[in-house]
Design brief:
By secondary structure, this protein is α/β, with parallel strands linked by helices. It folds into two domains: 93 residues; 236 residues, EAL domain (TIM Barrel, Alpha-Beta Barrel), CATH 3.20.20.450. Helices cover 54% and strands 16% of the residues. The protein has 13 helices and nine strands. An eight-stranded mixed beta barrel has the order 1-2-4-5-6-7-8-9, surrounded by four helices. The longest helix has 38 residues.
Length: 339
């Protein structure tokens, strides 16, 4: 029996290595061709074609990494194979999940530290998987990005958030200036018609543009160059605000910060939880110099709240204020806060 088990194990390992080799060999040639094209982007004059080229390069690189992992499983024949199969299974299950109504948004309130009232909501996606239960973003976002599904999911999130906020506005349940923010992934920014799609959603839902805020991480907002700058300027012209999320954790050039049409910096929660107040103070001074606002994330104690008020932060969100809420609970929270 042991001999049979060992034989089966070796067979599975050899199959994995063979599969990994076949994938790697094919993808390596595609990756090489794409690299040559990206090195000579000046010859590709269509901006949409250049963005699609970068998307193809990124996705091919991810697939190549997966192939290398599968091929290298001789040392750990079961662990990586299981992980790779699980990722592929999730990627397959993501397809059509929006149409099946499996995604929902929850909303984490953002308050003004001066008045204590709610000024905005951050929309966060959750996957109500039919067999796995409620899944958090860290369980599927990376797979959604690598599989290309993130563009569809991201656009759904923007449309759903705008539709929900406009409904609340029409029924008089919230202040007409309360905004909703939605996170953008790097892959979404490379979509050819993202700006036009957002403009169409605002037109369809009749949501005032200033009520939609888009969040990008520091590295995406500041490190991707002139293409991103042009897109952000387009959002600014539409009246959509841009927030830089997780600020302070990247290695972006602060000297370039003033070049970008940014409305607010969201201080990464790690600085709040570790009570690194000098770093928070420096970010607040930088924002004041640039004429932009500050949102502090990760507020978990009254001490955090009072300290941030003293450091000049205008807005805050975190579990002390509220955990992410489903749509039905948002109105109750806002009304309780106002009273």
């Amino acid at each position: 029996m042991k001999t049979t088990a060992n034989t089966n194990s070796n067979t599975n390992s050899n199959t994995s290595v063979s599969l990994g080799y076949e994938l790697r060999a094919s993808l390596a040639s595609i990756h090489g061709a794409l690299r040559l094209l990206t090195r000579d982007q000046d010859s590709v004059t269509d901006p949409n074609a250049r963005r699609l080229l970068r998307i193809a390069m990124s996705n091919t690189h991810r697939l190549l990494s997966l192939a290398v992992a599968i091929e290298g499983e001789t040392q750990q024949p079961n662990v990586l194979t299981t992980a790779a199969i699980e990722r592929l299974r999730l990627a397959n299950e993501l397809q059509g999940a929006v149409e099946r109504g499996e995604f929902v948004l929850v909303y984490q309130p953002v308050i003004c530290l001066g008045s204590g009232r709610a000024v905005g909501l951050e929309a966060l996606a959750r996957w109500e998987h039919p067999t796995r239960g409620l899944m958090q973003p860290n369980s599927f976002i990376e797979i959604a990005e690598s599989s290309g599904f993130i563009a569809e999911l991201g656009l759904w999130a923007i449309r759903e958030a705008c539709t929900q906020l406009r409904h609340w506005q029409r029924t008089g349940m919230i202040d007409s200036n309360l905004w909703v923010s939605v996170n953008l992934s790097p892959c979404q920014l490379l979509e050819p018609n993202l700006l036009g799609q957002c403009e169409a959603i605002l037109h369809e839902t009749e949501l005032p543009p200033h009520c939609l805020h888009l969040e990008l991480t520091e590295s995406v907002a500041l490190d991707l160059g002139m293409d991103v700058l042009a897109i952000l300027q387009g959002f600014r012209q539409l009246g959509i605000a841009i927030y830089v999320d997780d600020f302070g954790t990247g290695y972006s050039s602060l000297a370039r910060l003033h070049e970008f049409p940014i409305d607010a910096l969201k201080i990464d929660r790690s600085f709040i939880l570790r009570e690194q107040w000098e770093i928070v103070r420096m970010i607040a001074l930088l924002a004041e110099h640039l004429g932009i606002q500050i949102v502090a994330e990760g507020i978990e104690s009254v001490h955090h709240l009072h300290t941030l008020q003293g450091l000049g932060c205008q807005m805050a969100q975190g579990f002390l204020i509220s955990r992410p809420l489903d749509a039905a609970a948002v109105i109750d929270f806002i009304q309780d806060l106002d009273s």
